[in-house]
User: Fold this.
Amino acid sequence: MTTPPTGFLEEADLHAFVDGILDPDQRRRVEEHLAQHPEDAALVESWQRQNAAIRAVYEPILREIPAPSLRSAAAQVAAPSGTIESGATHWGRPGVLPRVRRREDILAQQRRQAIFASVLAVLSVAAVTALATFIFAGRGEHRPITAASAPQGYVARAGLTYATYVSDQHPVEIDASRLEELSSWLKARVGFYKVPDLSQQGMRLIGGRVAPGVAAPAGFLIYERPDGGRVGLYFERSVATISQQASKSGSGMTAIEWRTADFAFVLIGPLSLDLMQVAAEKAAAQIISASQP
Assistant:
């Protein structure tokens, strides 16, 4: 068995010095002892290096918030009685004191808990990834949008788009002065390029924008009347290929829906049903003419 340090100091004093738990007078006495005993000084320095290396490894784990189950398990670990424990691991001479072995047991328990928490985290991430893959894989399937699968009707989405953009300070993304650019942009983004001319119905084109649709982007054109009233033409892809028309009026707004050329169209605005019907028929005629070869 290795002989303890000479003089008035014991190995426990050296451990306390490494842990930084001595008062100023005790620390000064240990420093004087180490200055006179190079072997003890080298031993203390090796403990300090080892403690620094362990802290560098485990401090990121200590900053993590453990799961409630791990906190409960940690609370059940009883602290050894009659000894001073610190956050360091002591590496000493052969014949280490029993309290050092007890400290190693506690650290081993903490390491097992940290490993268990890491495994749980990895499994949680794997589960979330698998769920996301399943969801997005399902979205990747190209299935036709039906009335049962669409979250809203075309009129409802047109009304939401109208309420969102029509009174905005910048309601359109491309204005009517760049009509050719607007048509090309709508064709590339939405798949439809014909911009109906409703000037004979007293509706001047302001411009257009792209809006959210169900399975693809939708288009939205905004027209303005001389009195400042604005009318919107909403359109997005539809599975219906035959022409059909429906009208709805309420809350001061009128909406007329029809479908042609694989698109659903909704003309919506604060006008009477008669005026909106005439404008819708004019727009539909121009759209059908443009879609014919």
